[in-house]
Amino acid sequence: MAFRLTCNGWSHDVGLQIIHADVKLEIDGETVIDEPLCVDVGMPAMLLSLYRDVDPDRWSEPDMWESKPFFCCGCGDPECRAFSFRVRHEGERIMLTELEERQGDEPRILVEYAVDRKEYAEQVRQVGQQFVEFADRLDYRPLYPNTLAHAKSLLAGHSPG
Hints:
Elements (H helix, E strand, L loop, with lengths): L2 E11 L4 E10 L2 E9 L4 H6 L22 E2 L9 E9 L2 E10 L2 E12 H19 L11 H9 L6
């Protein structure tokens, strides 16, 4: 399956201290996401998914960065609206499952995709690098203060400390 993730039109909401982008995610010709979203809250979790399986919990505390949904509503609050994905590594494939999270209950599977691990890694790394380059030049003070440091560390292939 072809996997294509792009983020364009990067912007920084100074008041909310979140970063937005126009997110487009296509898998095997199907448009999964095509809208402006908050990308920084879930960026470390998305980059972590390059190395290990991840499960979202949109109601987790900010310091539980590894379980944040990859993309959130424009307000930056994952509890408001988010795109939640479970990632499982299976050899040369990534099983990417879009979930509808339900507080206090098991998530409902919306759709599952098998994507090429190399394609996934290439696209996610590219978006992560764009994020770091954009955020690095800002007076960026997110709710979870280690967002940028974790993104840099994960792009460098290190697990955040």
